[in-house]
Batch of 2 targets.
Target 1
Amino acid sequence: MSEPTRSTTDFQIGSEQFDIASELMGLREELRTLLKTPFREMRVAIPIRRDDGSGAVYIGYRVQHNGARGPCKGGIRYHPEVDLYEVRALAALMTWKTALMDIPFGGAKGGVACVPWEMSTAELERLTRKFIQRISIILGVNRDIPAPDMYTNAQTMAWIMDQYGRKNGYTPAVVTGKPLELGGSQGREAATGRGTIFVLEHVAREWGVDPSLASAAIQGFGNVGAYAARFFHELGGKVVAVSDISGGLHDPAGLDVPRLLEHVAKNRTIEGFGQGQRISNKELLTVSCDFLIPAALGGVINRNNADGVRARFIIEGANAPITPAADQKLAERGVIIAPDILVNAGGVTVSYFEWAQNLQQFYWDEEQVNRELAKRMERAWNDVLTVHKEKKIDLRRAAYLIAIDRVARAESLRGFE
Ligand code: NAD
């Protein structure tokens, strides 16, 4: 039987982990049902005028999975494969991620099915404004706070803040990942990649690997992948392969990361960089390396290619990059997987700092942001490692156990009525 589509697979990843963890902890049936059921789902039509004068109608979603521990929080993704199943699955991941990091948020996600790389900046602005206009009744600083995800960035967040503000007045805390000029936080842009490499360092220490002697392959060279490459290189490690939507590059001797970052800043893609051998995105996943860092789409490591993975460690920069079938195959071969809800939680953690700074209108310097981020990531890592050792379960199950327990306690204390 062929594996389900990417969206269905993404949905199963979180949902299977939830079932396993709730069974392990003996969670009451009514709580299981409550925690699996999204709190609120919204689907909207987004009609906009294209630059050529024609009209187009896009479909957008916002799913609030759970808000027991605080306002719902989660990014907005622009991608042709966005659908309700994917957004729903990613919203649930946010609930577990914010709980694992012990920050006072719940989980949400949004997305618009579109082909952002074929749209002009003006079209993307019109799309964003109309989308926000239509979902703004469920947003708010104490209700639901969007952030960037794939193919959205600080500029998109600036439009969101401006659009929301037209009706509600100056409200910077309604969205995070904003430009610094509009109340963004120092360190937010780099936070997810920085957190990814913090976790890689903890994994390396625990399993006796020296990162400065290690190699990494990174799929995706956007916000998460490019910063992960930079910080891994700064540790002295060798980045032997990278890829983006245009394909990949491989050099076992190590790519020149600073020069590659300059190239991408200028050209927006790794294409045309004059070093390394061209490889496909599929080949990147099976390159010989110590650390494989998927940092693009979900479901890329699946039952068809899991046996080909040669890395000893997988550090999940992307959300849900490994399907449940692949997860099992890799575990049987002893591959250590650091799970997404821990690895890429640096972004939402600094988003929390941004929200707190906006509410207080009192701003931190970058050193303070990075220090607090390191502290929070270390605490979450130690929590996961302790449960992993005590219960003899893998890192992903340990992370889910902690997260689900925290949300279940909050729901129980609020009461079922
Ligand atoms: P981005 O839009 O900045 O970059 C995406 C990168 O993936 C680009 O380099 C693009 O070319 C590449 N890409 C697209 N399609 C690809 C394909 N088929 N094969 C290989 N590469 C492809 O996105 P991002 O913010 O870096 O997000 C990447 C992943 O990290 C997503 O799974 C996202 O959910 C997750 N994430 C992001 C953040 C954040 O703060 N940005 C936080 C947590 C998790």
Target 2
Amino acid sequence: MSEATRSLNFIEHIIEDDLAAGFPKGGLRFRFPPEPNGYLHIGHASSICLNFGLGLRYQAPVNLRFDDTNPTKEEQEYVDAIKADVEWLGFRWDRECYASDYFGRLYQWAVDLIRLGKAYVDSQPSEEIARQKGTPTEPGTNSPFRARSVDENLLLFQEMKTGKHPEGTHVLRAKIDMASPNMLMRDPVMYRILHKAHHRTNTDWCIYPMYDWTHGESDYIEQISHSLCTLEFKPHRELYDWFLDQVAEAGKVRPKQREFARRNLSHTVVSKRKLLQLVNQGVVHGWDDPRMPTISGLRRRGCPPEAIRTFADTIGIAKRDNVVDVSLLEFHMREHLNKTAPRVMAVLDPVKVVVLNYPEGESEWVEAENNPEDPGAGFRKVPFSRELYIEREDFREEANRKYFRLKLGGEVRLKNAYIITAEHVVKDARGEIVEVHCTYDPKSLSGSGTEESLKKVKGTLHWVSVAHAMEAEVRLYDRLFSDPVPDQHKDRDFLEFVNPDSLQTVKAFLEPGLSEAKSGEQFQFQRLGYFCVDPDTTPAKLVFNRTVPLRDTWAKVEQQAE
Ligand code: ATP
Ligand code: MG
């Protein structure tokens, strides 16, 4: 389904209705507003693709706005990582904005609210304020400080700002309605005292604005037309609008908050807090561990940005929270990599084949197609010789007629090379097969045009020449959690569902052309899957990550379990 032909999603319908009602197309502006308190994950990718996708569709600017109002959790490291991830996904923002840049403006507006009798300093402990909030069915109780004079409020708020008061002693609250059926409208806190340095404003501020007070006003300052957020903010919309009512001027764009459902991915968790736990407890090696559902983890694993974008476009946006199966993301990875990744041969679990009638000490270079899906990808040469590795699981001494790999007395084609027949095996003292002795048909070379080369053989195996092979470390990843929804079980901690076998490291043998492979490069290891070069690679040691196997092995497991 192409972007142009798919039907409109419900957010686009809202925008179309606004345009039809006279809102100027040139006034459209969107934003993606991450809090820099962790790395972006695949859930954020949905929001990024939605907002930047709208920007592309309507040729409207999209801001990258850091929602940095909580100095205790936010860091420059996260800001840098978020920018790198959005760029890597292929999007360009119009302006790079920070809520912290608006602290002065927000403070002035708060002073205006105090002057108008619409905000007051409450000097009760937070537990007391919470107790007075009431319940959804019972109204709250007015704070004894609600009737403070404007002058006293102005003085106290000024003192809060200059650091005269310790944390927790005062807050600034909006004076709305302690009996509102919407609990969020019961005099919400606008500012709290925090004697903490901020990653951008340093120690300039001792008070920090709350999310609700900051977000809508930031949208207004940037003149965002449609402020899209996840469903949990739906009850906040009334407050978003109330705050806008206090500051919005005629003739300016009035931002509109609309909500869409969070996207969850199966067999993982998409919450920065929980991902941070995995990092801190050493369950994974870092935010960019290839098992993580973070954008940086997916990148390191070898997931192409196009796969994330087509995945996000395919699942679209929804009005209800839901879990999308990770195999759908893997499907899009395969779809893209099938077209782009050069084919190579690698053996991950070798058994040696000796071709008895191939001259000892000789070798030849056979021609191999780089990518049958891409005619422009060309050909390369691969060395063939008397001793080869094939996968251990590609040989059996005995097997039934449905086994199309190598068995004693049977023949297979070695990809791009010759047809071989297994004659007998050599075993060690423990009975394990150490060599499979074969013969080959010298006239059967693939592509040579002879009658033998055209002979149809049921099985084709990948292989590498022992004398020429490159060694590499290959990291095989599996799902990080064995349960599809690890964080949605009552009374069970999501960490209980960590898959203990999510990483397996093997020594592999590769065709020699791979010695030049650079970090990030991607390949199809024929018959095995897609792999990419890990940044841990050094001139002395190649390291590969398995991005995805060629086939979805979990689909089988899950079918059997049913
Ligand atoms: P987390 O719970 O992981 O910290 P968050 O919503 O607190 O997520 P933010 O940095 O505030 O993280 O999110 C930036 C934007 O991305 C917000 O608009 C948020 O609604 C959206 N977003 C976050 N998680 C998801 C998700 N799973 N699916 C869709 N959008 C998401
Ligand atoms: Mg958040």
